[in-house]
Amino acid sequence: MSARQAFRRAEPDARRQSLIDACAHTLAHKGAHGASVRAICTEAGVSAGLLRHYFAGIDDLVAETYRVVGARVQAALDDAVASAEQTPEARLIAYLAASFAPPIADPDLLSTWLAFWSLTRTDSTVAQLHSEIYADNRRALEALLDAHAPGKNHRLTAVALTALVDGLWLELSLGNAPFTPEEATALTRRWLNGLLPLQ
């Protein structure tokens, strides 16, 4: 079988999505420095020239991958809220605790996210996307906090809770964390209860 025959044929949207998925996988397993056009296209099973058909270049693909991965994380958070008991507190806790279970607490997602974080120092587009994704996350959290405890400024509470959740998520995603997802949720609830009376 020739190299040309080895490439999979697919619909345009599927090919574009396969490049995004391959970029995320390559970032997770090879890091930002290993995410070359060749590595990503090999992972996607497409010719290297096809990347330029769908994206302006590797930087454009990486940025779009960050958008897509960020949207998937937000969708998982939103799904957790929608599935929770429909009280303000239950919705808030569900949003926070969603980071402690799959699909968010996942070693590959962590590795991909770490690659994006490393690029924020060298790629202005990724840095801007990072700011936008985290701002959107904090706004969603602030809205849930406001529903739970109306009439207060929840900006710093959202910042503090995001920092706590990120740290616990990091430990859980690395594996062998010295706590369970349930304990992470309990810690988050305790910190939430400690923060709100201070406002």
List keywords for this structure.
199 residues; mainly alpha; 10 helices; elongated
What can you tell me about this protein's structure?
The longest helix is centred in the middle third of the chain and has 26 residues, at 58-83. By secondary structure, the protein is an all-alpha fold. It has helices at residues 3-6, 12-34, 37-44, 48-54, 58-83, 88-97, 107-119, 124-148, 155-174, 181-195. Helix 2 packs across helix 5.
Measured on Cα atoms, how large is the radius of gyration?
19 Å
From N to C, what is the helix and strand string? HHHHHHHHHH
Q: Judging from the principal axes of the Cα atoms, what is the shape?
A: elongated
Mean pLDDT: 91
Q: Classify the secondary structure makeup into a structural class.
A: mainly alpha
User: Spans of 5+ residues with little confidence (pLDDT < 50)?
Assistant: 1-8
Distance between the termini: 67 Å
Our estimate of the beta-strand percent is: under 5%
Helix content: over 70%
Please summarize the sheet with the most strands.
none
Number of helical stretches of at least 4 residues: 10
Q: How many beta strands in the DSSP annotation?
A: 0
